[in-house]
Amino acid sequence: MNKQLSIGLVQMTSSSRIDDNLKRAEAIIQQLVEQGAEAIVLPESFALMEKYNGQKLEYLEKHGNGPVQAWMSETAKKHHVLLVGGTIAIQSNLENRPYARCYIYSEDGIELTHYDKIHMFDVSVKEGESYSESANTLAGERPVAFEWHNIKFGCSVCYDLRFPELYRYYQAHNVEVILAPSAFTLATGRVHWQLLLQARAVENLAFVVAPNQTGTHDNQRKTYGHSMTVDPWGAIVGELAEQQDGLLCTLDLSKIESIKEKFPVHQHRKLMS
């Protein structure tokens, strides 16, 4: 049976001004809904790209209570779409180290589940550009898969893409659509973004949906853009360049079973964790 999903990816240059970011996101969401999107995925840090370390603590929200969570719920309900909310800072049990949490809301505005980014971006990208995400963010500990309208989704965020064992969990749970909202840097994006997205799609025979931040932010950080969706055979379904915009992709989910029947790679595994 043919099963399709029209999904919209939001590509933004988020700033340190939450109201401006939400207005930009709302405009792109409206555009995607008018084009027929049933689901919308926002990028990592969509509501706030910190201008200085610790700024996110000024806008910290508690789980189930806060203006950005309210905005996501209201937006999902207003547009009658599944909304995947990139990440926002949510209070943990450790002071000054909130979770980077991705919320998922149904078309009724009800929270379906949430995922806390597991892998922290503690790297030196190039001379003069380094990151220590674990210094001000608490890592999550569990994969999160969920079902919506008989479609199985798996959650991940940005740096998670470099750790295939997370996606093996989703493959074992028959996930059809891997979500990967990101804020991939310009330097690493040029060499690894498309490669990683295609690898995760091909090895798990699933669609990968990855909206990214783009351009130069007001903290002078540069992100790569090129939001894209990749199909289970590694083909790019749709891709943006560097502009702030929306990307609508139609996923033919029946393609997954068709490939698995002809190419049953998962039945050939020899080494199990």
From TrEMBL:
Protein keywords: Hydrolase
Gene3D superfamilies: Carbon-nitrogen hydrolase
Record's keyword annotation contains Hydrolase: yes
Tagged with keyword Hydrolase: yes
GO molecular function, one term: hydrolase activity
Pfam families referenced in this protein's UniProt entry, alphabetically: CN_hydrolase
Domain CN hydrolase residues, every copy: 5-253
InterPro entries listed in its UniProt record: C-N_Hydrolase, C-N_Hydrolase_sf, Nit1/2_C-N_Hydrolase
Tree of life domain: Bacteria
CDD domains registered for this protein in UniProt: nit (cd07572)
Name of the protein in question: Carbon-nitrogen hydrolase family protein
Organism annotation: Kangiella aquimarina
